[in-house]
């Protein structure tokens, strides 16, 4: 079971805060990647101060200030950036990191943040997402010296030199979501990893099954994809520490235990095991208190060693 760190900086974090957490995650050696959301507006009753940080500017900085941990997004919003520009940005950050980038792309859903910052919020988002995935992966996959053309409903490219190229031969692409039909089909076409955010074990099993079926229908092996979950983490050495961490992030312990990964290390290992049993190979631990570096250390020392036996 692979563990990764997933942050939500729009809730309130500076670049320096993110850097401390990314470096700590790297130094602990228990986490394979540091991911962040792609949002420009806070959610819920937090201040959001000092304000949002841009996902790909953040990752560019981290690319130069870390050395081994992989870096990515859950998920980049397709509504925020034109696909040609996005392909350039991600390829550049991949080069800056020495080939450590992973690329999650989603349709975008939070209308209020678009209104707040003057970003168009199109009605037809899924079709745009599909075209963006086709364009970005097409640009990266175009051979040197050749050009890329695309004539879609939403985007048109003509004689693009398809540069720059990423450092990796292929940047891993993440697709995710709970849609029963179009999402599995999209994953079958483009994804190296399929991710489910904040869903139950039962819903995970059902959606992984749909995706595996879609992948096989597309002529690929179902096991060619990595299957993962993103879940909020709230771990404590005892019940009092769990309660303290839950209070800091404004959540109820019982709710966190029902919907996330909350409790003592042994309780969380057992919970992760349930996801592993239905096919999850990777867990993105949503860390909501970005100043609590001891939380990372606890997970690294008490949970990661037990998960090694899950494969």
Any chance you could write out the topology, listing elements then pairs?
Elements: E1 2-7, H1 15-28, E2 33-36, H2 55-65, E3 70-73, E4 76-77, H3 83-97, E5 101-106, H4 111-117, H5 126-141, E6 148-151, E7 156-160, E8 173-176, H6 182-190, E9 193-197, H7 201-217, E10 226-235, H8 239-248, H9 253-259, E11 261-263, H10 265-277, E12 282-287, H11 293-307
Parallel strand pairs: 1-2, 1-12, 2-3, 3-5, 4-5, 5-8, 8-9, 9-10, 10-11, 10-12
Antiparallel strand pairs: 6-7
Helix pairs in contact: 1-11, 2-3, 3-5, 6-7, 10-11
Structure description:
The structure is a single chain. The chain is an alpha/beta fold. Helix content is 43%, strand content 19%. The chain has an 8-stranded parallel beta barrel with strand order 1-2-3-5-8-9-10-12, surrounded by 8 helices. Strands 6-7 form a two-stranded antiparallel sheet. Strand 1, helix 1 and strand 2 (33-36) form a beta-alpha-beta unit. It is globular, with a radius of gyration of 19 Å. The N and C termini lie close together (5 Å). The model has no long low-confidence stretch (mean pLDDT 97).
Oligomer: single chain
Largest sheet geometry:
8 strands, parallel, barrel
The gross shape turns out to be globular
Strand content: 15-25%
Tally of separate helices:
11
Overall mean confidence score, pLDDT? 97
Low-confidence stretches: none
| SSE series | EHEHEEHEHHEEEHEHEHHEHEH
Alpha carbon gap, first and last residue: 5 Å
Structural class based on helices, strands and sheet pairing? alpha/beta
Radius of gyration over alpha carbons? 19 Å
**Helical amount among residues, as a percent range?**
40-55%
Strand order of the largest sheet: 1-2-3-5-8-9-10-12
Give the tally of β-strands. Answer: 12
